[in-house]
Amino acid sequence: MFLANWTSVKVFFFLGFSQYPKVQVIIFVVCLLMYLITLLGNVILISITIPDSHLHTPMYLFLSNLSFLDIWYTSSALTPMLANFVSGRNTISFSGCATQMYLSLAMGSTECVLLSMMAYDRYVAICNPLRYPVIMNRRTCVQIAAGSWTTGCLTALVETMSVLPLSLCGNSIINRFTCEILAVLKLVCVDTSLVQLIMLVISVLLLPLPVLLICISYAFILTSILRISSVEGQSKAFSTCTAHLMVVVLFYGTALSMYLKPSAVDSQEIDKFMALVCAGLTPMLNPIIYSLRNKEVKVALKKLLIRNPFNTACISILK
Fold first, then answer.
1. CA 259, CA 207: separation in Å to the nearest integer?
2. Stated pTM of the model
3. What family does the entry list (predicted)?
């Protein structure tokens, strides 16, 4: 069997959804819409957060970071896929594949850590409201955000660098629409036990462990909410956590199903669908979920639109 290392492979070929030619156009249109909505929603969220002093709070600082990494994550996965569909080539260079793999791992890992830190922020806000400004001060929030990015980027670098030296079987056909690390490992002929061990350790650190921290945070949050005597107070406290919980369930549900599924379960089509959900649907829904019924975001958006006299129609819709 012919062996080749990564550097000797010039081009990788994506199978993607080519075996379904009748639905390829539909998939392209859906992915294009998801990408455009993701860009629009996250850019708007960042645009209204930065200039508005009322949104200079820990929650919106973390939310801006989440929007920024969602833009990068979606762009790294869907942009090459859309470009390949238009050109009809379905290929990617070696450097492009390595970059795409690193970016997807880095952005996904960073989001894992960031979502757990956002749960801690909600815990402090509800369980220790009087000490919240002291505990979650500007410096602490910046350190948390920087720590999330550093952790995600470093773990992604370790995973990517552990795969690049491996020898391939001379087959450069990837049965996905992106250079996803699990799909690339299926092209490797040599023993991948060490790489799988590294991935397992990192997956445990970035998936079940943050989920555990989120569950503990919300256990304390639920206990504190139930102690509130007024129904209005309980409803207000629940509303501050609903959006984050929805995003956590959506993100971790798809991530856990992809990376921690039993080895006996191996369905390429299910994997492609789950990868598409992670790359397109989740980043698209994040700004919608966080801005839905959020009065602060609506007020800030109105202020942004008022600066442009041509947006009066949009303002009337938001009322």
1. 9
2. 0.83
3. Belongs to the G-protein coupled receptor 1 family.
